[in-house]
C-alpha cells in the first residue's frame, strides 16, 4: 500500500486518538503528546510527515516537554530524511530504543481471516473481564494500568472481548478515527494461543470498520513478535515504515 503524506498524518493523528494522551500540543509539522503515563506513543513527539524537518526544532521541542515536567522523547521514522536528526540527537545524549513496525493494509485482508465472530463482543467501555485479561499474565502491572487508563478515555474506541463458557480468552481495542481502523493491545490467554482467537477478534473489528465505511487498517507491532507478524501477514498487512524512540 502506497501512503501519501496525508495518509501518514492521518495515521499519526489516529494513533494519538487511540492512546489518548492527557494533552496534545503542536508545532511546525509535529504533534507533541504530553502524558505522565507509561505509553510511549502518548508522550513522544512525532512528525506529521516524513519529509525534511529542521533539526533546530529539537531543542524547542525538548524544552516544551521539560516545561511540562516531562522527559523529552522523540518517535522518529527510520527514513533518510531524519538522518540529520539521528546524529543531532546522539550528540545531545539521546539513544535509539524500541524499534517498532507500523503496518498497514486493506480491510479486505482482515475480513478474509477465518473464524466465527459470534463469540466476540465490541463494547464502548472495557468491562472487568477485559481489564483482567489486559492486565494479566506477562504484562507489567504499572504499565498495564497506565495503558488501560489511556485506552479507556480514548474517543472512537471499542473494546473487543472473545469469550467461551463465561471466560474471556482474548481482548483488544479497535479505534475508528481519521478514516482508519487501528488495532491496539491485542492479548490472548497463554493457554489459548494457536487457536486463531486473535484472528477472529480482528475480523470482528474489521466488520465494524466495514459498517462504518472504513476500508484501511493499521497497527504498530514489535518487529521481534514473530507470531503476531505471521497473523498480520495472513491478513494482508505489510510494513509501511519502522520507527524508534529516541530517549
Tell me about this structure.
By secondary structure, the protein is of the alpha+beta class. It has 2 domains: 5-100, no CATH class; 105-242, Aminopeptidase (3-Layer(aba) Sandwich), CATH 3.40.630. 34% of the residues lie in helices and 30% in strands. It contains 8 helices and 11 strands. It has helices at 5-19, 57-67, 83-91, 107-111, 128-134, 141-152, 197-211, 226-234, and strands at 23-27, 30-34, 46-47, 74-77, 96-106, 120-123, 157-164, 167-177, 180-188, 216-222, 238-246. It has an 8-stranded mixed sheet, sandwiched between helices. A 3-stranded antiparallel sheet has the order 1-2-3, sandwiched between helices. It is globular, with a radius of gyration of 18 Å. The two termini are 30 Å apart.
Q: What are the main properties of this structure?
A:
247 residues, alpha+beta, Aminopeptidase, 2 domains, eight-stranded mixed sheet, three-stranded antiparallel sheet, 11 strands, 34% helix
The Cα radius of gyration reads 18 Å
Beta-strand share of residues = 25-35%
Count of extended strands: 11
| CATH topology group of the largest domain | Aminopeptidase
Q: Give the number of helices.
A: 8
